[in-house]
Amino acid sequence: MRASTVFRVGGVTTVPATRASTPRLLGISLAYFLVLLDTTVLTVALPDLRVSTGGSLAEQQWVVDAYTVTFAAFLLGGGAAADRLGASRVFRWGVGAFGLLSLVCAGAPTAGVLIGLRALLGVAGAACLPSSLALITQLYPDPARRARALGAWAATTGTALVAGPLTGGVLVDLGGWRAVFLVNVPLAALSLVLTGRVGGLDRPMSGRVGWRQQLAACLVLASVTEGVVAAQPLAVVPAVIGALLFVRWERRSETPTVPPALLRAPGVGPGLLAGAAVNLALAGVLFTTTLLLQGAHHLTPLQAGLAFLPLTLPTAAGPVFTARVVAARGPGLPVLTGLVLLTAGPALLAAWPEAQYPVLAAGLLLIGTGVSLTLPALVTVVVAAAPPGTAGRASGLLNAVRQTGATVGVAVMGTLADGPAFLCAALTSGVTALLWALSRRRR
């Protein structure tokens, strides 16, 4: 596409959507799929990783959480970087770095080295996600075509959840835990080939990216995670320091990462709380159940991946139904119903270690259905409630809070025994459901 076909709509550089945009949309969606896949695909590989590297349970938790900690922290600035440095440029840097770092991860000699590489991988993932959304907005200026493109992009969330445990099981059975990272390399290369370079889209905007705030947020999340994993109360000290620095630098910034008006908007607070609770339950259940399936129940990685299908399949098919319910009745009821299911599912799993697989399947089905009802509706809640001009940062904040919930879920539930871990997820979702109902009633 020639640069002369570029035009501007509402101050945003765009290009007319043509058939040439379809491969680019596939490449953009593939990168999004790749980033989300890495949040779950490694789960079923953890026992093999522990045998291969001799890592402890705490190191297994950190292999998972190192990615989500930096992913969550740098998502806050990923959108600002795409706006100020150019969406196409940031996307290509992020995808290229993701593929290269995955290759290096496959050769990690120890769990400690892998943890450091996974942290860098999370930064690359945080560059890919917001810039991919910005690219779609620029490639499809027509609202109707943009809505369809965003629908295809968003559908990769459920697909990644379905593919994660199952793909991980197949790869580990074939080539061990290192194969989980090697598969990222050709997928990242294919994404770059399909996306290509869209001339004229990389026009930097004024303002600065709040890198100091991102580092402060990373310090907070990492300290809290270490405090839980290692049962180290002193970890609260750097967490408090990081929080104070984040607030100070945000107040002094002319373009804050999290605008105060966004946090004060009605519905945003409860939406963020619900997003964190959903991912806490989901990530914590995936981590705890994987260890039980391959430990106490002696399943192979592939069998463990198949056992998760009752959870993962609804997350792929359910969002279409949820979108229709939200359009007809609003997002309040789907969120509340989903949180109730996310309370019942883990509560049922608490009795599973002494029961047969149908009990596990029923609990996982309730959780998967709850996730498919809640997350799509929460995006509508938070973005619709955001003040004008903050929708992009609202979306980034929701994703950051969700990944924070996932980090805490793995850290907390990974340190508990199976029954108490599942009850922790049920209690978190139940309290959040109650708070959500009260907030909707007051509004």
Can you describe this structure?
The protein is mainly alpha-helical and 443 residues long. It folds into 3 domains: 17-198, MFS general substrate transporter like domains (Growth Hormone, Chain: A), CATH 1.20.1250; 211-252; 259-443, Up-down Bundle (Growth Hormone, Chain: A), CATH 1.20.1250.20. The chain contains 18 helices and 2 strands. It has helices at residues 21-37, 46-53, 57-85, 87-106, 111-139, 143-175, 179-182, 184-195, 211-229, 236-252, 260-264, 268-294, 301-307, 309-329, 332-349, 357-385, 391-413, 418-442, and strands spanning 7-9, 12-14. It has a two-stranded antiparallel sheet with strand order 1-2. Helix 3 packs antiparallel against helix 17. It starts with 6 loop residues before the first strand and ends with a helix.
Features:
disordered N terminus; Growth Hormone, Chain: A; 2 strands; MFS_trans_sf; 77% helix; membrane; mainly alpha; transmembrane helix; 443 residues; transport; MFS_dom
Query: What is the mean predicted local confidence, pLDDT?
Result: 81
Describe the biggest sheet?
2 strands, antiparallel
Give the fraction of residues assigned to helices.
over 70%
What structural category do the secondary elements indicate? mainly alpha
State the CATH architecture of the largest domain: Up-down Bundle
User: What is the name of the CATH topology of the largest domain?
Assistant: Growth Hormone, Chain: A
Total number of distinct structural domains: 3
* Unreliable parts: 1-17
* Secondary structure tally, helices: 18
The CATH class of the largest domain is Mainly Alpha
What is Rg? 21 Å
Give the N-to-C terminal Cα separation: 48 Å
The CATH homologous superfamily of the largest domain corresponds to MFS general substrate transporter like domains
Strand order of the largest sheet: 1-2
Shape: globular
Strand content: under 5%
Beta strand count:
2
Question: Order of SSEs, N→C?
Answer: EEHHHHHHHHHHHHHHHHHH
